[in-house]
Amino acid sequence: LQDAGFDTHIAGEVASALAAGVVVSTEPSGGSIVASGSSVGLYISTGEPPAPDDDDADDEDAEDDESAET
Fold first, then answer.
1. Secondary structure (DSSP) of 4-60
2. pTM for this structure?
C-alpha cells in the first residue's frame, strides 16, 4: 500500500486465528476507490481466536433441548 502511494497506520487489533501481525481488514475496505496519498487503516490479527459468544452457547443448548424432546 505504501508503495502504491497510500499512508498506512495501525487502526487496531482483531481477535483472529490468523497468524499474529497479519492484516485482517482495512479501512476503507479493499476495492474502494480513494485518492493517492489517502490514509488507510490496517486492522491486525492478534493470533488468538475470538472467545466463544455466550449467545452461541445458548443457541446450541436450545437445539440440544429440542432434539431430546423428539
1. TT-EEEEEEEE--SSPTT-EEEEESPTT----TT-EEEEEEE-SSPPPPPHHHHHHH
2. 0.69
